[in-house]
Design a protein that fits this description.
about 30% strand; 7 helices; globular; about 30% helix; binds magnesium ion; about 230 residues; alpha/beta; Rossmann fold; four-stranded antiparallel beta sheet; binds adenosine-5'-triphosphate
């Protein structure tokens, strides 16, 4: 099976005056359908840089990258937007829910932006995947942090992406909610065939994934497949 994301020799350098920061310094990654991959590593090791490249939010300085069968390296900002559209779903550390919209309306927002039709029945089905169908008409401030993040995951799923990307999705959550979010990601990969890509500082959560990639100084220093429980 062809991987959904395939990167070879990925580099991202930043210029800082006369200095060059090698945020990412030659990384090879391949992620398949139905696979959940965690990216671990100390602060500044390049996790966000890598996830931004693999999800086409940023372009590499060097290397080749294919996302959902399309070459992504060397594209302009507009072309990257086009590649992301409908293929990638994003989840953030700060949930970024709109406080004046209900849970259901927040979930439907990406469809509105893409000019796609909105069906409440479908929204409720997605909310049931994250265990929140009974909260559809609530406002975000009536939810717990873990519930807000599950709404954000439902929102990312509304466009039926093939790849789900999350940078520190449990950074603002307690342990119990964090584990629930990781279990949910794992289930989505398995049952919906999504490729799921996550960065975290929490090693225990990280090892819930099918594959764990550890970065140091912009390079992969370890790649593991934790035994399935
Ligand atoms: N826009 C930028 N300009 C210059 N340097 C940058 C920029 N973004 C990131 N860097 C540098 O690249 C390196 C990797 O940063 P990155 O944000 O990918 O690390 P990280 O592993 O996500 O860290 P954290 O765990 O703190 O989120 C760091 O040394 C950082 O200072
Ligand atoms: Mg980061």
């Amino acid at each position: 099976m062809k991987p959904l994301i395939e990167a070879k020799g990925l580099k991202r350098y930043y210029r800082r005056g006369v200095e060059t920061v090698k945020a990412l310094d030659g990384v090879d990654v391949s992620i398949g359908e139905g696979e959940m991959v965690s990216i671990l590593g100390p602060s500044g090791s390049g996790k966000t840089t890598l996830i931004n490249l693999l999800s086409c939010l940023d372009a590499p300085s060097e290397g080749t990258l294919t996302v959902a069968g399309k070459p992504a390296a060397g594209l302009t900002e507009d072309q990257l937007v086009e590649l992301r559209r409908g293929t990638l779903g994003f989840v953030f550390q700060q949930f970024h829910l709109l406080p004046t919209l209900t849970v259901a309306e927040n979930v439907e927002l990406p469809l509105v932006f893409l000019g796609r039709s909105v069906e409440r029945r479908k929204t409720l089905e997605i909310l049931s995947w994250v265990g929140l169908e009974d909260r559809a008409s609530h406002l975000p401030n009536e939810l717990s942090g873990g519930q807000m993040q599950r709404v954000a995951i439902a929102r990312a799923l509304s466009i039926e992406p093939r790849i789900l990307v999350a940078d520190e999705p449990t950074g603002n959550l307690d342990k119990k909610s964090g584990r629930m979010i990781f279990d949910l990601f794992k289930r989505l990969a398995r049952e919906k065939g999504l490729a799921v890509l996550i960065t975290t500082h929490n090693t225990a959560f990280g090892y819930e994934a099918d594959r764990v990639i550890t970065l140091e100084d912009g390079r992969i220093v370890r790649e593991e497949r934790p035994a399935r429980t």
